[in-house]
């Protein structure tokens, strides 16, 4: 169809690149140094044997014994009591409380590793609590983060004894090799922290993303409801109130002054037409009838006709997407064309829509002045948030002087049959 979509992984404008001249000069310097045999490629700076990082590692290894004893005792007592009393009504709640406390221990250990070992481990998402007491109980009992923290506490006791003993002895009699020993032992600790105290990988990250997206969806829906309420109150409702008052006055004058009453009824008829037009416009803003009846191609042609510049619309879809995706695609293009009319100073624009496997892609181009930014007050940041809430993506390419290309990507969901 002649469409050459903008790759979604391109480097945005404003990202600095290394000058070619500098890279060439560096290469020349290295070549000359290698040919002379008097210099070698620069190396990263060395760490001193007993630098700040080494002393932090030593402090972590020496404190392992005390935290390991506390974690081991807590894990054994909480699990044994909970499992042993599970035949009673307090067993499982007691085990759930122990798992909740294990999460706090895990947070403390992540903080200790972050401060002394420089290990950056993301905090796990809070447990979603639904269904009252029994919902909390079931969710806590199957919490993988808490169970991994309990396992961490159980295996740390022998390791804590080993690291404390080796570090203390080396600090007294083997201090020349202590930096190397502390580095090896600390690396093993780093592996344990990352392996047992990190979130549940992709699932945890996905939960955090969905929680953030849910907030965006709720805020957007609330803003749309306020907009609809405001438009009804300030537009059609006010006009209908005035219409009712006018008809009441016409009713009073119907017998005494028929000509005036007829004129007032004629004026009310005009007000009815205006009110109906406002209601149609409001309904079109919620979900246009042409989109429901004729699909995305006709709806985008309709909205492009209201743009202040000529717009070429190309829709290459063999089937219609689900109603929700179709509506989001329509309002995305509509808002982008409004930006073209208000801010772009363009002479022409184009809209292209196509499907690529399980994604629906939209691309709006204009030959305007360019320079559009997500923080430029054009609503692009809010549009990107709304697309992100449905697992979508918005990419902006708008150099100074133009042209501007905005590519939106949405998940494809087929329309249910029938």
Portion in strands = 5-15%
| Helical segment count | 12
Order of helices and strands: HHHHHHHHHHEHEEHEE
Binned, the helix content reads 55-70%
Instruction: Give the beta-strand count.
Output: 5
The biggest beta sheet is recorded as: 5 strands, mixed
- Overall outline: elongated
- The Cα radius of gyration reads 33 Å
Structure overview:
The protein has 418 residues and is of the alpha+beta class. 63% of the residues lie in helices and 8% in strands. It contains twelve helices and five strands. It has a five-stranded mixed sheet with strand order 1-2-3-5-4, with helices on one face. Helix 3 crosses helix 4. The longest helix has 53 residues.
Summarize the structure.
The chain is of the alpha+beta class and 418 residues long.
Characteristics:
418 residues; alpha+beta; five-stranded mixed sheet; 8% strand; disordered N terminus
């Amino acid at each position: 169809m002649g469409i050459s979509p903008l790759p979604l992984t391109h480097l945005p404008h404003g990202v600095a690149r290394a000058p070619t001249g500098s890279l060439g000069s560096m290469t020349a310097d290295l070549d000359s140094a290698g040919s002379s045999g008097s210099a070698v490629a620069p190396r990263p700076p060395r760490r001193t044997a007993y630098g700040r990082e080494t002393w932090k590692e030593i402090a972590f290894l020496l404190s392992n014994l005390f935290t390991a004893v506390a974690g081991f005792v807590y894990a054994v007592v909480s699990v044994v009591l909970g499992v042993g009393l599970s035949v009673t009504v307090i067993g499982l709640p007691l085990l759930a409380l122990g798992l909740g406390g294990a999460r706090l221990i895990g947070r403390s250990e992540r903080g200790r590793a972050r401060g002394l070992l420089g290990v950056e481990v993301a905090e796990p998402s809070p447990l979603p609590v639904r269904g009252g007491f029994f919902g909390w109980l079931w969710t806590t009992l199957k919490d993988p983060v808490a169970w991994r923290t309990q396992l961490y506490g159980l295996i740390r006791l022998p390791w804590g004894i080993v690291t404390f003993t080796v570090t203390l002895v080396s600090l007294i009699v083997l201090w020349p090799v202590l930096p190397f020993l502390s580095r090896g032992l600390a690396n093993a600790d780093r592996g344990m922290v990352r392996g047992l105290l990190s979130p549940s990988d992709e699932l945890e990250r996905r939960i955090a993303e969905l929680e953030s997206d849910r907030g965006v969806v709720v805020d957007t829906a609330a803003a749309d409801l306020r907009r609809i309420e405001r438009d009804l109150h300030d537009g059609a409702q006010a006009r209908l109130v005035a219409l009712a008052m006018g008809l009441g006055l016409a009713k009073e004058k119907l017998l005494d002054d028929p000509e005036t009453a007829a004129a007032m009824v004629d004026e009310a008829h005009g007000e009815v037409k205006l009110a109906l037009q406002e209601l149609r416009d409001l309904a079109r803003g919620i979900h246009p009838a042409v989109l429901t009846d004729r699909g995305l191609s006709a709806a985008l042609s309709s909205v492009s006709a209201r743009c202040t510049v000529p717009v070429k619309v190309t829709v290459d879809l063999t089937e219609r997407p689900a109603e929700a995706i179709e509506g989001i695609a329509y309002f995305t293009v509509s808002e982008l064309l409004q930006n073209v009319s208000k801010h772009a100073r363009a002479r022409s624009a184009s809209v292209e829509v196509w499907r690529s496997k399980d994604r629906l892609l939209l691309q709006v181009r204009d030959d305007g002045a360019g320079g559009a930014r997500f923080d430029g007050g054009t609503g692009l940041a809010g549009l990107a948030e709304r697309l992100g809430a449905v697992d979508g993506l918005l990419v902006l390419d708008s150099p100074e002087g133009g042209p501007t290309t905005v590519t939106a990507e949405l998940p494809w969901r087929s329309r249910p049959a029938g």
